Amino acid sequence: MKRYVYINDDNLAQDLYCDNRISNRKYTIWNFLPKNLWEQFSRFMNQYFLLIACLQLWSLITPVNPASTWGPLIFIFAVSAIKEAWDDYNRYLSDKKANEKEVWIVRQGIRKLIQAQDVRVGNIVWLRENDEVPCDLVLLGTADPQGICYVETAALDGETDLKTRVIPSACMGIDIELLHKIKGVIECPGPDKDIRRLDANMRLFPPFLDNDMFPLTIKNTLLQSCYLRNTEWACGVAVYTGNETKLGMCRGVPEPKLTAVDAMIDKLTGAIFVFQIVVVIVLGIAGNVWKDTEARKLWYVRYPKQGPWYELLIIPLRFELLCSIMIPISIKVSLDLVKGLYAKFIDWDDHMVDLETKTRSNAANTAISEDLGQVEYILTDKTGTLTENKMIFKRCCISGRFYGNENGDALTDTELLNAVSSGSADVIRFLKVMAICNTVIPVRSKSGAISYKAQSQDEEALVRAAARLHMVLANKNGNILEINLNASLLQYEVLDILEFTSERKRMSVVVKDCQSGKIFLLSKGADEAILPHSHAGQEIRTYAETVEQYAQLGLRTLCLAWRELDDDEYQEWALMFKDANSTLIDREWRVAEACQRLEHDLEILGVAAIEDRLQDGVPETIATLRKAGINFWMLTGDKQNTAIQIALSCNFVSPEPKGQLLMVDGKTEDEVCRSLERVLLTMRITNTEPKDVAFVVDGWALEIALKHYRKAFTELAILSRTAICCRVTPSQKAQLVELLKTCDYRTLAIGDGGNDVRMIQQADIGVGISGREGLQAARAADYSIGKFRFLKRLILVHGRYSYNRTAFLSQYSFYKSLLICFIQIFFSFISGVSGTSLFNSVSLMAYNVFYTSVPVLVSVLDKDLSERTVMQHPQILFYCQAGRLLNPSTFAGWFGRSLFHAIVVFAITIHSYALEKSEMEEVSMVALSGCIWLQAFVVALETNSFTVLQHLAIWGNLVGFYAINWIVSAIPSSGMYTIMFRLCKQPLYWITMILIVAAGMGPVLALKYFRYTYRSSKINILQQAERLGGPILSLGNIESQTRTLEKDLSPLSISLPKNRNSSVYEPLLTESPNSTRRSLGAGAPFDFFQSQSRLSTNYSRNCKDN
After folding, report:
1. Are 522 and 511 in contact (CB under 8 A)?
2. I want to staple 215 with a disulfide (CB 3.0 to 4.6 A). Which of 463, 582, 644, 930 is the partner?
3. Annotation-wise, does 493 bind a ligand?
4. Range of lowest pLDDT (41-50, 261-270, 786-795, 1092-1101)
5. Has residue 1103 got a pLDDT over 70?
């Protein structure tokens, strides 16, 4: 929807659009309570607990005081609400600070100082140097005579280099006094979040101009939150305000990501709910039968002979309330709390600080840390992610002559330096294109030294190299460029800029030589975007071979070209270009078409080669993570050979003969089909060999494969551990991530630039590198790190620990709830199956909230292995990837443990106290004490590394249990008056506790000892080595278990059924040894993997096992 902005006309703009008040708040004072409650009750578990709490208000069916459920429910809801309120209050303070900033505007020809929130669309805003831009403005004037100003956009896109903005041509030459009175209208699209694009038009009213239309682009705007730099003043008209600015439209809460652990917990919760319903139905029927057959015969029960119509529902509903604690009410709050701590551990990790930039790692998403430990595929960008993105001009080929091949540095090549000093025409033209065809800003210091501000590292490298070769970009004054060549001054007027896009893959400028008056088109770009547009008759084979040669060396290449334009040709084209820039519909396409009309018949001048070095530690990081069973895909826009060389140098793939690269190429559907078929056939054969196989595909073939042969390409993705995807666009990167996710793999995408944002947001885990391309990727990511090498620690240490701890905490939460519930069920068998509760309301309420929560929360400090051991033996990450510690089998073990411990507690308690004519409260307290003692020892047994804090939490919690109950026992109205005092004086009570602990923990300890001694896992071996202080030279192989995927034998028609059968869990152990794992593709040449032969009629994906 279009909007019309009337410049400097308050009446027309007053009520059409929103004001400039920024609001990131989620709530208001009035809607906080209902909105927050609505959000909390939108979750199934909270609805379930609310239903249970409401049923407990029915006195006829509730077995306990309703406070036993309402208390924990209100407490947990209050904690969540307070957290939300605190976060929202901080957002309110941030908004208030921004809204109350003072801003100069023009009203009725007079400058006034107002608050930023009072700026309206159409107001003229006046900025001074270093002011923050309060809303989206279209520039009208600047202090610079040429209409240029400089802005810092770090707050918007993270890029620290200054960018130039220019006033529209319609406003050129307007006096500063007349700017207060300017009138006109701007036609622009509705608000959007594209910070790199604006398609609008401007008309100024007489006497300024006679209603002529002028195009506006993003170059004519100042966006909200940018800062005016190196410019005395600038003014502009507000076109988007408040939350309708481009930055405001980018704000918002991202879609929550569901981790594999959360998905498994949801499934287990559903299974427990079904089990609970079955138990309720069975006990309800049994209770009604006993009531009708036995209870009515007992005079003291006093059942009426005739009950209400709903009498049959009373006992089942009582058991429903009694069994409701099977699903722990505190599990969500506990998990949210510990996940927040996991994120803080990443923020606080001093081993993940980039010392060069002082950048710390940051966890923006606090909910998915455990997914880091289950990553199976890493999809990575190349430039700036694997490399430093510090471009250095190394070699060049000019008119068929090579420079820099001898010493590896063209800047010190004597032959090139002599050619420059002698004024070689070919070399001079080549250097002029390097110096002029760019968006670099030269900045002269007070001492006279020139530095360069560039948005592209490639452009900066070319301009610096040209300067060292005496072609110095000295000044940009509006559209006039000043070039110093061997002490002589050259001036060029920039007429038009044909900007670089990922589709065109080239940039051009049209310049006019101020001395000769000749007009030239200067172009630079990728070889496939420049060489095909050369003029007829020019031999380009040499340049194509040069590009391949440089790519073999891992260098980035750019082809440079130019041609002279006739005045008539340029004038005709300029009108077309202006019309294309003026349209609001399909402007980008029409501009690209206009550019195509000019960029032809080029004279190829040569090829520039730029080196981008690998970051420190990249090969070691990739090698380590590959040992951990993680597959790597490189997604880059670079040339194929350049990407392959980088892949070889950073251990992506092994060189021949150990490794093998398979090419998927083609320009047509048939060519891609044959290529895919050939590569798939080779891949199936080589799957039986210990060979490192990778496939290489370019963007064109990838587009065809994803569109027409998606199933075949999916099979290829599954079979290959490594892929190198070249010349891919940002959208193709996101498609590849989505492809792997549909195969049910956990994906991690890592990049450093704005073109990686879609890929990062699409992946299960997004990691951004705070690099030289800005912070766009880091801001869009779940985690940001300073260097690629920190990824190893992020996954192996933080990811693995987070998964292990979450797996234990979630299953323990179910265990303690099931334990108390099973005791209640057993008690019903000796209480007439009536649904009577053994425990009183206070005990039940305190059980989940106080007695059992503190010890398990300190499990966030537990480490089964030291960080050093984990980093030395990355293969053990397999236990996390395979879901060894949290799956239906492991849960069955915890379920069995809770049932066994409930039998022990109930049997010993009843036999010790039921025959002693004890009070019901005494039996209840003895059973509760047994549960608390058992759980203290369970937590102690499952803890691998004790700290003082963990000892205090486990044993201090036990002391706290007695302290709380002594206090409650001293209150006459508590219903437990003197109970704990009497029990603690009885030797029988302490003997009972010892029996419960011995009977409950004895078999668990025996089974654990047997497993640790005779069936030890690789982790157990490492734990033993750590305790003994000896090294582990080899852990041996993990025996592989194949998972077969039947496939159609017809070419390129592959079905991928999922088969995730897991063997039965061996109960009471810390991990399940038989959980299957999806494949790592071809047989991997690592100690931990063994490949098995495959039948010719199917292919298998290796599954590691213990």
Report:
1. yes
2. 582
3. no
4. 1092-1101
5. no
**Taking all residues of the chain, what is their mean pLDDT, rounded to a whole number?**
82
pTM for the structure as a whole:
0.77
Q: Are β-strands 692-698 and 722-726 bridged in parallel, bridged antiparallel, or unpaired?
A: parallel
For residues 250 and 815, give the distance between their C-alpha atoms in angstroms, rounded to a whole number: 44
Token pair, residue 693, equals 């196989």
Say which residues have a Cβ less than 8 Å from residue 429's Cβ, sequence separation at least 6.
562, 605
Summarize the confidence of residues 710-718 as an average pLDDT. 90
Is 1105 annotated as belonging to a binding site?
no
Per-residue pLDDT reduced to its tens digit, 387-426 = 887 888 999 999 989 998 777 888 899 999 999 999 899 9
238 vs 139: CA distance, rounded Å: 9
Asked whether the beta carbons of 145 and 478 are under 8 A apart, the reply is yes
pLDDT in the model for residue 914: 67
pLDDT at 690 over 60: no
Provide the token pair at 490.
Answer: 């050259």
State residue 83's pLDDT score.
78
Listed in sequence order, the DSSP H helices in 882-1017 are: 888-913, 920-942, 948-969, 979-985, 987-1014
At 747, the amino acid letter reads T
Would you place residue 650 in the very low, low, confident or very high pLDDT band (cuts 50, 70, 90)?
A: confident
d(CA 230, CA 1080): 54
CA distance 866 to 873: 11
SS3 196: coil
Highest CATH level, class, for 119-251: mainly beta
More confident residue, 276 or 292: 276
Say if residue 381 carries a ligand binding annotation.
Answer: yes
Amino acid at 178: L
CA–CA gap between residue 379 and residue 750 (Å, rounded): 6
| Torsion angle (degrees, nearest 10) of CA 870, 873, 874, 879 | -80
Q: Which two tokens stand for residue 77?
A: 């809801």
∠181-185-190 over CA atoms, to 5°?
A: 135
- The CATH code belonging to domain 328-385+615-637+728-776+789-1021 is 3.40.50.1000
Cα separation of 384 and 390, whole Å?
8
Q: Which amino acid is at 510?
A: V
Residues taking part in catalysis:
381
Of 460, 442, 459, which Cα lies nearest the Cα of 451?
442
Cα distances (angstroms) measured from residue 475 to each of 162, 165, 429, 437, 440: 15, 16, 19, 14, 10
Omega before 134 cis (within 30°)? no
Cα atoms in the 13 Å half-sphere on the side-chain side of 1030: 7
97 marked among binding-site residues: no
The reply to whether 328-385+615-637+728-776+789-1021 shares the fold of 119-251 is no
Q: How many CA atoms lie within 13 A of 654 on its CB side?
A: 14
Give DSSP secondary structure letters for 618-637: HHHHHHHHHHTT-EEEEE-S
Amino acid 301: pLDDT: 59
Domain boundaries, the chain: 22-97+263-326, 119-251, 328-385+615-637+728-776+789-1021, 387-568+595-611
Task: Give pLDDT, residue 355.
Answer: 86
User: Average pLDDT, stretch 502-508?
Assistant: 84
Task: Please give the DSSP secondary-structure letter assigned to residue 1069.
Answer: S
Which of 199, 14, 180 is closest to 6 using CA atoms?
Answer: 14
Sheet holding 148-152: strands in order across? 163-166, 148-152, 227-229
Name the class of domain 387-568+595-611.
alpha beta
**Closest to 142 measured CA to CA, from 102, 197, 179:** 179
Q: Is 429 annotated as a binding residue?
A: no
Q: Are strands 377-380 and 631-635 parallel, antiparallel or unpaired?
A: parallel
Question: pLDDT tens across 113-133, in order?
Answer: 999 888 888 899 999 988 989
Average pLDDT for 153-162: 66
Confirm if 158 and 779 have CB atoms less than 8 A apart: yes
756: annotated binding-site residue? yes
